[in-house]
Amino acid sequence: MKCAICRNGETESGVTTVTLERKQTTLVFKQVPAEICENCGEVYLSSQINRALFKQAEQELRRGVFLEMVNYSTNNDWCVA
Ligand SMILES: [Zn+2]
Predict the structure, then answer these.
(1) Does some domain include residue 81?
(2) Which ranges of the chain have pLDDT less than 50?
(3) Are 5 and 46 in contact (CB under 8 A)?
């Protein structure tokens, strides 16, 4: 798709790193599938990926971690509705 930021580049599928923070907890998700602009580097996450990320984040939060590096995983047993 066309990039909405620079209106110049096309996005390509790739992987990115997403950092989520809540209160004292910081979660760093690696290998998150995303569309990335070849021109300006803007990252687009699909709403499906977004939901999956936040769901995974909730699970990590419940474990009470402060700083965690997590590989984004698509093979958890929850599914995206
Ligand atoms: Zn762009």
Answers:
(1) no
(2) 78-81
(3) no
